[in-house]
Amino acid sequence: MSLLGGGLSRREREMVEILHRLGNATAAEVHEQMENAPTYSAVRATLRILEEKGHIAHIQDGKRFVYEPVVAKQDAAKSALDQLVTTFFAGSLEGVVRTFLSSEESNVRADELDRLSALIEEAKKKEHTSK
Predict the structure, then answer these.
(1) For a pLDDT cut of 90, what percent of the chain falls above it?
(2) What are the helix and strand counts (H, E) for the chain?
(3) What is the spatial distance between Cα 41 and Cα 28, in angstroms, rounded to a whole number?
């Protein structure tokens, strides 16, 4: 199962992201957090669909349902990023980085580039030791 990318509409992704940010929430709380929110009943229906798809779960608190994400935020982010790289860059991480760094609007600071370089060096070391 794709965690956040495939199979989720923009609204569904927005709701799952809200639940990740809040930790858990009722339908009313999700509705309140949404930009240009649809009707409250549409939010409830979409939360039910997300639960059927296995992305969220609920517990009952009195008469209210409290929803929470099933997948850890880190795993969901990795899945969404994997889909983005596959969809727009034919699976090439290099293409993503090149596109981002070559953008005229790119405002990557020198300290961020240093940290990225360190991460790349660390990944190279791991690759060499695993062979």
Answers:
(1) 55
(2) 6, 3
(3) 10
